[in-house]
Amino acid sequence: MKHPLFLEPIFKERIWGGTALRDRFGYSIPSEKTGECWAVSAHANGSSTIQNGRLAGKTLDQVWKECPEFFGFPQRSVFPLLVKVLDANMDLSVQVHPDDDYAIVHENGDLGKTECWYIIDCKEGAELILGHHAGTKEEFKQLIESGDWNGLLRRINIKPGDFFYVPSGTLHALCEGTLVLEIQQNSDTTYRVYDYERCNDHGQKRDLHIEKAMEVVNIPHTDSEPIPSVKEIKDAVITSYVQSDYFSVYKWNVSGKPVFPSHQTYLLGSVVEGSGIIENNGVQYECKKGSHFILPAHFGEFSIEGTCELIIAHPS
Fold this sequence. Notes:
This protein is mainly β.
């Protein structure tokens, strides 16, 4: 019988990280500058470990290769998605990611990186950078060379519960005081354009990648703002955020014991608030705030009993 896979996250220290992953979710973090929780990951730079069942102790990368029936016998060679929780205790670098075509040629065959953000929490007055004001590549380059970041960068005010879709080629950055669930293609390729002249603990500035960024950035910037749709079922409200070429993302607000139909694809789930009990064929599985899991393809009808908020995703 197939069962959910609950995953042990991997944590990454970052120059801009803090302690929100511990304070909000109770994670055991490696330091006071922990920026990233790789919650559902089969990437070579960090693969999540299965916590439960007969596959306990294996990495998600291993399970992807050894148990294709769990995922509906996928044809892809690599697990397509990566789910993170990001603690932007300080501003992240202004950056851009390549698309698949560019990454295959210039990044050793890796995937490109289209991503999306669900704002779990943020300080009052928080903002993020999404896009730019340059009309041409020449203007983009001139604004960078002159250091006119206020003239170049497009800033947006944000609040908890906001959702943003960030296609490859979009100049972007999370800013100080933001806690975000990120769902993205399974890629770790980032081209930094600006890093606030910061130095690491060794007094060194992080590398910038202006040349590659110039080759992949969308000029002029075009908005990609999906329009969410809301559907109510018994004991739950389902918000559909995006159905893209790479992933579909939803929010499930559960209050009671809603029943969900069987699904053909596997689902990635992250509990951002509350707790619940997943039940399938009479077997129960506890999920709580900070839990991350995968429901297998053709899992069958299941219920979730409790009061909780989950972000659900599946590959396209």
